[in-house]
Amino acid sequence: MRKSPKEILNNIFGFDSFLGLQDEVIDHVIAGDDALVLMPTGGGKSLCYQIPALYRDGVGLVISPLIALMRDQVESLNQLGVRASVLNSTLSRLEAKEVEQKLLKGSLDLVYVSPERLLAEAFLNHLSKCKLSLIAIDEAHCVSRWGHDFRPEYLKLNVLKNLFPNTPRLALTATADGPTRRDIIERLELKDGRLFVSSFDRPNIKYAIVSKDESKSKLLKFIEENHIGDSGIVYCISRSKVEATAEWLIKEGFNALPYHAGMDKNHRAANQDKFLKEENIIMVATIAFGMGIDKPDVRFVCHLDLPKNIESYYQETGRAGRDGLKSNAWLAYGLEDLSKIINFIVSSNASEDQKRIERQKLDALLGLCETTRCRRQVLLEYFGESLKDPCGNCDTCLEPAKSFDATVATQKALSCVYKTGERFGAVYIIDVLLGSDSARIIQFGHDKISTYGIGKEYSKNQWRSIFRQLVARNLLVVDMEGHGGYRLGENCKGVLRGEEKILLREDQFSKKADRSRDKKIKKPKVTLDNDADEALFQDLRAHRRALADEQKVPPFTIFHDSTLLEMAQKRPASTVEFGGLSGVGEAKLKRYAASFLKVISGEQPPCESS
Ligand code: ADP
Ligand code: ZN
């Protein structure tokens, strides 16, 4: 008898219950319908197509642009006993032929294909003879020119709809802003599909943003206090800074590796491979690093320079803690970043409209940096979600920032936006507030309105800071599709009527750095409270490492840290108990229970693999 989706979840994947919208998406696809799934990184997108592919007849076709990610996903699936293969440019002709034969025979559950490979005419011909259970288009935002991951081949993926009119198609992404979403639906012809949007919150990630002075010593302190022995990523803006930072971290005694697009291809690939397979590497990188990094146990992501916008920040920090365990996102920002990014935007050859949008997105990011509110609330609001209470797991929740009463300033700003017709951006509105005699203001007659010149108590820079924060709070909304001016946000009525007090963060830039850095001796981080559990956890990791080395696969494809943590705490004493751990399905039970049980009972020293 066919296994139900729930049984597949329990028996093959070893998980007790579905997360979030997984079961709804799975039922929908199993019924044969199309869907667009928006979930954050780590939200559990893969099961949304893997389970229907196992349930339905035929092979599940997964299109992914990320070769490294495909390889790891397929390895993880093989570890679970699922018949999965990749088909991309890294395969030899002979290997590719073999996979194609399996496809035709129907002896695969899932095949991961790069878009280039898929679109080759010969392959499409071959594919048309195969039976597909579903088509999953991963990283679907690559179809949109809005994001920075645009892939022209994605535009051609709608051929699949014509070739397989009766096969359900599922597009998945963690990038969810409005224009991108519309592009996906339109270009992949998903109009009739259902939209599944889950919360973008990543509760296990703790956000912290500090000012940039003394950023190196702040970074060192942060890593020493929280992440000795962990895997992490440190993002820098330039190649030279990547090199210098990696060298410096190595001198400070860390296992750091550089990664940027200017490096020799082999060297870069070797560093990436090391990062994936080992457990305590700090990757110092430009944003060239990360697309397709599916490593679940990245414990921290730091930015030594400001990312381009909130989308990038969220995507980059989202690489931390995919496994759901506690992780940190840490950012240092300063004014110098700002001028660098603005120059970058201005000198790019994007259209003027596009530039304006980039500029506003940057302002929203600064609003996040300057907010006195819970960072998570600000982040989620930017993505159109709301979180009722402050999260308690970000720096501003844990150590409230200095703020000033900006109720009157906010009223002035909002009414000036309103009185000028809700179509101008910050520069213009600030000029009006400051009573500038620019020709444009006079031409529009805005020197005659009541808000002209009423904001002289603040400087231009202070006003900019206020505007950024108002945007971050959605009291002002940047019109992304029109000319990029501000509109009043829906929640502004209370402030305008004087019913709501507004506290804004004091300008950060003048603050002095905290110079005191305790010179601490590096001691390994402890994950579990109980010493004996911690020791066992480390033994289990060592055992997993030995098994992984033997098979030449990343350790996390064998078990995630979360499974090892549960193992160390629950100490299963029998195969049955072992099978009850989250992440242990039938195949892994058969393959690994015996040797891990021996490590738990102390019968086998951890480093000898079975
Ligand atoms: P995404 O592709 O959305 O980034 P993944 O599919 O990689 O996320 O899943 C993220 C993590 O959550 C993985 O470690 C995965 O094993 C785990 N996971 C997914 N679904 C479940 C579930 N139902 N129960 C427990 N863990 C799950
Ligand atoms: Zn918070």
Summary of the model, kept short:
The protein is α/β, with parallel strands linked by helices.
- The CATH topology of the largest domain is Rossmann fold
Give me the side-by-side strand order of the main sheet.
3-4-2-5-6-1-7
Bound molecules: adenosine-5'-diphosphate, zinc ion
Total E-strand runs: 17
At the first level of CATH, the class of the largest domain is Alpha Beta
Would you tell me the structural class of the helices and strands? alpha/beta
**Sheet of most strands:** 7 strands, parallel
User: What is the molecular shape?
Assistant: globular
Write the layout of secondary structure elements.
Elements: H1 5-13, H2 22-30, E1 35-38, H3 45-55, E2 59-63, H4 67-79, E3 84-87, H5 93-105, E4 110-113, H6 115-119, H7 121-127, E5 132-137, H8 159-163, E6 169-173, H9 178-187, E7 194-197, E8 205-211, H10 215-226, E9 231-235, H11 239-251, E10 256-259, H12 265-277, E11 282-285, E12 298-303, H13 310-317, E13 327-333, H14 335-347, H15 352-370, H16 375-382, H17 395-398, E14 403-405, H18 407-419, H19 426-434, H20 439-444, H21 460-472, E15 476-478, E16 486-488, H22 493-496, E17 503-505, H23 531-551, H24 561-570, H25 575-579, H26 586-601
Parallel strand pairs: 1-6, 1-7, 2-4, 2-5, 3-4, 5-6, 8-13, 9-11, 9-12, 10-11, 12-13
Antiparallel strand pairs: 14-17, 15-16
This protein binds adenosine-5'-diphosphate and zinc ion.
